[in-house]
């Protein structure tokens, strides 16, 4: 029988959440181990290496708030790419030796609570067994990637790559590429590869109301002064705002403003770039449909100015909003809307010509057209938010798996724990601010809250 390794806490996942939990738990003098499926730190940033992958939160907000870590670290761009975020995690590891408490290449298969000993038994896919008083699920919102059940996918003679499992060394230059999906991952991969592939066909189901990223280089000129004088304030501020950014919604009632004032406000937010167009807007954006339509009309006008072809204008920024503005986390783009005017790029609206099947030489749509492809890129997202947890066979006091328990919807306490699963917590998961917040902001708050719980519960 396999040897059982004993810990106070087992943490699943070594992204921002898992690393923060570990560092917190170390401070309590408890023994913890992170079990991580990948071969490095970073979580989503370990796996998401597709061309153009970069974060939508601007620096310095997207990092740990511990001065010991930010004092000696600088990102070179305001929206760092995946390589630099991986470098950041290597830096954190070097500084705090996170890896001594991580077991890499270890995907967790099950976690069962045992009432008679008040412990969790956790097993990995390769058969290792762990026992711990506490189980901390730091599996993130996008750890289980989604491959739609396309007919004929296995018959394709070319290569298929999901954005969440991009091969480490892969040159897509000069190839005929089809991208399915245009969420944040799709937008980034599309704008990045469009200049160098021989042909790009984008299969779009819903237009993306992407906002301008307004990427900037960090020349570091004032950084020392800003770090010394402002960082502590900025990180304190981060935990007070709606979405964990430095900016927040305006509470002024829209009815108290004039259309001219609102137009100026929107123009200013647009010029700033990034998510503040949404999260720095009037709070009524999310509750007042009329105002929401006004913001959409502003966005549509801005986007249409960048597209000359009227058909493309209507496909990418339609007159009628496909959904209210801001109810999906907006993606940030750099040259996305210009890409579609390139001669080597075709946009296929799959509401008009559905994806019928993948054929050996490409993809066939319901209008009978066979799109010849060397590569199919699946930017089709994830089993979002719950997938990382429900893909583990987690059984609590009543022996019922959490997947079964949540079949009709998630039930949680404060988006971090669930009845009948004692001593089990999750961070940045179901019913927490997760997708609508800056990851490290809400992660640190929840992680600290759990630690307070551990101290009080002792
Ligand atoms: P996503 O937002 O779920 O987008 C998936 C895309 O695939 C959508 O365009 C979707 O269309 C399409 N799709 C799914 N199934 C399809 C099917 N059967 N046929 C055709 N199209 C299909 O996934 P994601 O872009 O990977 O993003 C996931 C999360 O990660 C988001 O919360 C995002 O904000 C975050 N993310 C952030 C960054 C960043 O920080 N910059 C980068 C990447 C991802 P519909 O829209 O019609 O459903």
From TrEMBL:
* Name listed for the protein in its UniProt record: Cyclohexanone monooxygenase
Supply the SUPFAM superfamilies for this chain. FAD/NAD(P)-binding domain
Tell me the domain of life.
Eukaryota
Keyword Coiled coil listed? The answer is no
Concerning its family, UniProt says: Belongs to the FAD-binding monooxygenase family.
* A molecular function (GO) term: NADP binding
Task: Kindly state which keywords UniProt assigns to this record, in alphabetical order.
Answer: FAD, Flavoprotein, Monooxygenase, NADP, Oxidoreductase
Name the coenzymes or cofactors required: FAD
A Pfam family of this chain = FMO-like
């Amino acid at each position: 029988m396999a040897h059982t390794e004993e810990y106070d806490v087992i943490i699943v996942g070594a992204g921002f959440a898992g690393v923060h939990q570990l560092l917190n738990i170390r401070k309590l003098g408890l023994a913890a181990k992170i079990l991580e499926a990948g071969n490095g730190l970073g979580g989503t940033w370990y796996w998401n290496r597709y061309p153009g992958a970069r974060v939508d939160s601007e620096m310095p907000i997207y990092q740990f708030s511990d001065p010991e870590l930010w004092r000696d670290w600088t990102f070179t761009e305001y929206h760092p790419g995946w390589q630099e975020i991986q470098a950041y995690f290597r830096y954190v590891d070097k500084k705090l030796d996170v890896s001594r408490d991580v077991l890499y290449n270890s995907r967790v298969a099950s976690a069962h609570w045992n009432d008679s000993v008040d412990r969790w038994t956790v097993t990995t896919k390769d058969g290792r067994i762990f026992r711990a008083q506490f189980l901390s699920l730091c599996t993130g919102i996008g750890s289980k990637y989604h491959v739609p059940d396309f007919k004929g996918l296995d018959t394709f003679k070319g290569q298929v790559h999901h954005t969440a499992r991009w091969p480490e060394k892969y040159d897509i230059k000069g190839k005929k590429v089809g991208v399915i999906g245009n969420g944040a991952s799709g937008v980034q991969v599309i704008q990045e590869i469009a200049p160098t592939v021989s042909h790009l066909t984008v299969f779009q189901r819903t237009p993306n109301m992407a906002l301008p990223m307004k990427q900037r280089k960090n020349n570091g000129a004032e950084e020392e002064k800003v770090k010394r004088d402002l960082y502590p304030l900025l990180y304190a501020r981060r935990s007070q705002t709606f979405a964990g950014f430095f900016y927040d919604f305006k509470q002024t009632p829209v009815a108290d403003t004039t259309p001219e004032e609102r137009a100026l406000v929107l123009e200013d937010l647009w010029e700033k770039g990034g998510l503040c167009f949404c999260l720095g807007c009037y709070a009524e954006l999310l509750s007042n449909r009329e105002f929401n339509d006004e913001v959409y009309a502003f966005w549509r006008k801005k986007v249409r100015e960048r597209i000359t072809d009227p058909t493309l204008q209507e496909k990418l920024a339609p007159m009628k909003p496909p959904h209210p503005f801001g109810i999906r986390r907006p993606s940030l783009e750099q040259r996305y809307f210009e890409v579609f005017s390139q001669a080597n790029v075709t946009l296929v609206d799959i509401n008009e010509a559905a994806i019928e099947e993948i054929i050996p030489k490409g993809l066939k749509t319901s209008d009978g057209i066979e799109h010849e492809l060397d590569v199919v890129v699946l930017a089709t997202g994830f089993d979002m938010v719950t997938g990382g947890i429900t893909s583990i066979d987690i059984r609590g006091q009543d022996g019922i798996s959490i997947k079964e328990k949540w079949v009709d919807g998630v039930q949680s306490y404060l988006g971090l724990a669930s009845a009948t699963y004692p001593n089990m917590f999750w961070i940045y998961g179901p019913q927490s601010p997760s997708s609508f917040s800056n990851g490290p902001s809400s992660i640190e708050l929840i992680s600290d809250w759990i630690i307070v719980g551990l101290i009080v519960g002792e």
